Amino acid sequence: MPAKSQPVTRHVVSINDLSKREIEAIFEIAQAYLDELGDPKYHYRIGQSTDIGSRHILASLFYEPSTRTRLSFETAMLRMGGEIITSDDPAVSSAKKGESLADTIRVIANYADIIVIRHPKDGAARLAAEYSPIPIINGGDGSHEHPTQTLCDLFTLKKKNKRLENMKIAISGDLKGSRTIHSFVYALARFGAIIEPMPAAGMELPHHVDRRLREEFQSKLVSQRTPGSDDGSIDALYVTSDKPHQQSLFAAGEVDEVDYGFFIQKKVDAVYVTRFQKERWSEDQQQPYLKIDAKFMKDAKYSDASVMHPLPRVGELDIDLDNDRRAVYFQQAAYGVPIRMALITMLLGLKKNKSLQTFPDGFAKPEHPIYRQPIGMGLRCVNENCISRDPSEQHYAANKFYIVRGATPDTGRLRCLYCETDIEEETAKNFVVADTTKHHYVRGLEPALHASDDRLRHLIIYESEADAERDGYHARAMGRVARAAN
Ligand code: NCD
To answer: Which ligand 1 atom is nearest residue 311's CA?
Structure first.
């Protein structure tokens, strides 16, 4: 345990790095900034500056295009009286010369007090955090997460609806490639929302995200339906079961027994629209894409629904809605300034008000054991866009996986620590586990799934017997396999 005088450096890589209490604390500080520095003509706009952040420097390190995220972070720091240094074009930074992200971070951490990073690879912000002695904020990493966008989204919803708990939110578009969506649905589920996914064809939420919603955040998934597909199925819903009235519905047994019509007909609090993330797909993968327009919004269940979008929009959100009283997307972007001021305030431990100065706790994630693999040996993350598979990071991003245990000793799966993609049991069925003390291996993941931390240090998981044998391990003789698992 670190001494009290040396607080742990906090990073915000995933929205799940923040407890619900911390999210609320960020909103209280953001509101305090709006009250103090708001533009009298526009209630959502910060129009004045202060000096609370003077003598602090924010580094913005953007390896991908950005308008709102980078500029609102920089504005936030400037409005607080701080300074900024920025690298927004990898073509003119050392990345072009082949410098690893790990090295870049270790250099920049000596130039600034806080870093916001955007990167095309999933998990890049987690790798940056591993190498950074100062706070790292994820400004979007591949299609993994974009937690500060979610803070803006939730704050917008809270301002509009005066609450965060138990909302009903429809999400439309590219639910697979949109990092904003992934952070958003985790947060919504944790705040007890009913989530209605409306994906474009083939762009459903990734399997591992949908499973986490159900298994870790107690959302119940029915199905995901592409609007207009007219296959007779009901709308898709995630329903969290942490509300008593919902729990009683589920207590009846299988999810099929729930009267879904009850939810579908209920008024929706917001329709959240996302663009097709063309940079995450190949050209031939573009599909017909739902357009949200005045006609769509005519449905009675959307009569009071906010229309939200992280922006940029590229045709999927009709500009005719701009003057609709339900459109909140420009306010959503404006809130990027007070929200990011509040986040910087918390991460730097600045004293905005008496009660809330630093992050008190952190989201109580289930404590998954971590399997750390020797560099250059064993298995790789299955996600080809994971930072751990980037050749320039191969000496820095040692493969690490959470062991997500199942209900029985022989079940469980591995989840990449960087991009949080799960290795499916089907993929893992040929894996073998080698024991470095005995120089043999056994088939299947079982010896690793329930090993103690100490025991885990002596195990290497391989994708195949051939890989284990290449590193000098041999199969444990049959009959002794069962004992090897203990
Ligand atoms: C989003 C992003 O970069 O993921 N933009 C943003 O930060 N507001 C959404 C998008 O690009 O579609």
So the answer is: 8
pLDDT, tens digit (0-9, with 9 covering 90-100), for 49-67: 999 999 999 999 999 999 9
Does 143 contact ligand 1 (Cβ within 6 A)? no
Which H or E element spans position 45? strand 42-46
Residue 162 exposed, middle or buried by CB count within 10 Å (0-12, 13-18, 19+): exposed
The 10s digit of each residue's pLDDT in 381-413 is 999 999 999 999 988 998 999 999 887 877 889
The answer to whether residue 389 is catalytic is: no
Q: What is the DSSP track for 399-450? A: -EEEEEE-SSTT-EEEEETTT-PEEPHHHHTT-EEEETTTTEEEESSHHHHT
440 lines ligand 1 (CB under 6 A): no
Residue 111 lies in a domain: yes
Which residue range(s) make up the domain with 403? 370-485
CATH of the domain at 47: 3.40.50.1370
